[in-house]
Amino acid sequence: MPVDRAGEATCVIIAREMLDTTQSDDAPPQDEPRGCLFALSQPPLMIFLAVIGCLLLMASLHDLLLL
Q1: Which of 24, 42, 55, 58 is the most exposed place for a label (fewest CB within 10 A)?
Q2: CB distance 10 to 3 below 8 Å
Q3: Distance, CA of 63 to CA of 59 (rounded, Å)
Q4: Tell me, what's the pLDDT at 42?
Q5: pTM, whole model, 2 decimals?
């Protein structure tokens, strides 16, 4: 394992994916800000919002139909 100047061991990972630094064709230009539609296209956010929506729907149906 390589050692840096401070004497601490450092981990070096070299992988084919890490060496490729070219930008893909579908990358947005750096000058253009990303909007909220980009944020909504992220799968973890959509899963979180779907779970919260289902919980709210179940609670409202419970209040309307069973109480």
Answers
A1: 24
A2: yes
A3: 6
A4: 86
A5: 0.44
